Amino acid sequence: MQFLISMHINPAVLDALTDEEKRAIGEGHGRFMADLKESGEFVLTQALVDPSQAAVVSVRGGQPVVTDGPFLEAKEFLGGFYLVDVENRERAVELAARIPDAAIEGLGVEVRQVMFSDGQLEA
Amino acid sequence: MSGTPGRPAAARTGFEDLLRELAPQVLGTLVRRHGQFEGCEDAVQEAVLAATVQWPEEGVPDSPRGWLVTVASRRLIDQMRSDHARREREAALAAEQAAEPAREDVPGTDDTLILLFLCCHPTLTAASQTALTLRAVGGLTTAEIARAFLVPEATMAARISRAKQRIRAAGGTFTLPEDAEREERLRVVLHVLYLIFNEGYTASSGDELSRPDLAREAIRLVRMVHAQLPDDGEVGGLLALMLLTHARRDARTTASGDLVPLDEQDRSRWDRAMIDEGTALVKAALADTTLGPYRLQAAIAATHANAATAEETNWTQVHALYLVLERIAPNPMVTLNRAIALAEVEGPEAGLGLLATLDGDERMAGHHRLLSVRAHLLEKTGDAPGAYEHYRRAAKATASLAEQRYLEARASRLKR
């Protein structure tokens, strides 16, 4: 079964990290990806640009209106995700716990099962 | 690798079935000769791929099996030559080949079964067991298996090669397990085939057409096992269960993909030939004095399949069969299904009473099936608000899009 492990980042928390801490996070993600690929559980991963670069699109009276984002007035934003194919929910949770973000106060890692998929998976 | 979806289109017609049938036999022949399952399995996969490229152009060779054995052996030798660490074994292989030129036309009947036991090795996860079985026994390419499970080909390749390493590390050998172990290992094999069937049966994805038909593949594999173990009632039972379930396939969904519950299905669209075959298998399997969960489930499916209309279903028999099943293989899902049958026999309150016994079961807490069955039974008692609430909760809990649509539609019908 497939799960999306999403990483909810708080830009203020990230900004407050030291360079060493940032590097450790980057290396942690690299190791995590390599392990996933080796275990045959990796499907896809993507990271998103900073929320300040988002555009919010709405259509009012048939006319599209585009404003600078982000849409949510929140402290945390979707920063990226891993899509994994694993044996069960417990395994997905176990993997999520290995993501460096999970160990940092103020950053959130969330696990949700995939219900429907479409598209090419030639990653 | 990107852009080409596995086999060339021409290979899908004509000899695909032949290749699938020969792949495990060729693998069996190779492993018998050379040992080392891992390397042989890769070599056979390459030979199968070579056949899908060459046969459409050059025609199927006179002895397709011999062709595959020759090509796979050559690949195996090439592979060993390129591997310096294995020079000694290469020499041994060459000597072996010189001493023993041809043993290849011994039909490898038992090999398929031995391969299944090896691929369904108990140290592997279910995902690895299914992937390896589909490749080594089913003759599917890694790309096809990856598509079937909606993962990248590289991921599936890693999973398969890891599975083979694990088997080697666990000391898995190319022999039938001893009697004491055999029964238990056969149950694992049947479970893996059942999982493959279910994956094909319940799959929810955007692009059904390009995915290999796993339900049909599972039926084909169980047929192979049944041909070799015709007296095993559970093997016959599993084959029957799959046929009786698959027979309803066309009637299960509407053209737009919405689920149609059993009692509303157009029974004229059920596959009669498949039902007849399944029913005959159930009868034979039940003649065996011991009972097993697959043949009991098949007997239940046969009872449904042989009712001309939903109203004519022999619910007393269905309920009795679930009672036996519950006794030999206790499981909250079985109790849940028995509650549906009990409600038909004694009324929805009796069914709800039985469901209440599951409330304390951790395995069922918040499970969408428990919620949806309760919703159905509440609807039958006339408790529309209760039914509405449970349909909505079940819709939120399910991981199947088709089921979610169905449950939401049931809820909407109650909201006026």
UniProtKB/TrEMBL annotation, chain A:
Source species: Actinomadura logoneensis
Gene3D superfamilies assigned to the protein according to its UniProt record, in alphabetical order: Dimeric alpha+beta barrel
Domain (YCII-related) ranges: 1-114
Name assigned to this protein: YCII-related domain-containing protein
Source species, domain of life: Bacteria
Protein family: Belongs to the YciI family.
Phylogenetic classification of the source organism: Bacteria, Bacillati, Actinomycetota, Actinomycetes, Streptosporangiales
InterPro entries to which the protein is assigned, alphabetical: Dimeric_a/b-barrel, YCII
TrEMBL record, chain B:
Keywords of the record: Sigma factor, Transcription, Transcription regulation
Tagged with keyword Transcription regulation: yes
Domain RNA polymerase sigma factor 70 region 4 type: 116-167
One Pfam family it belongs to: Sigma70_r4_2
GO annotation, biological process: DNA-templated transcription initiation
Domain RNA polymerase sigma-70 region: 18-83
SUPFAM superfamilies registered for this protein in UniProt: Sigma2 domain of RNA polymerase sigma factors, Sigma3 and sigma4 domains of RNA polymerase sigma factors
Domain DUF6596, residue spans: 185-285
GO molecular function annotations of the record: DNA binding; sigma factor activity
Entry keyword annotation includes Ion transport: no
Family: Belongs to the sigma-70 factor family. ECF subfamily.
Protein name: Sigma-70 family RNA polymerase sigma factor
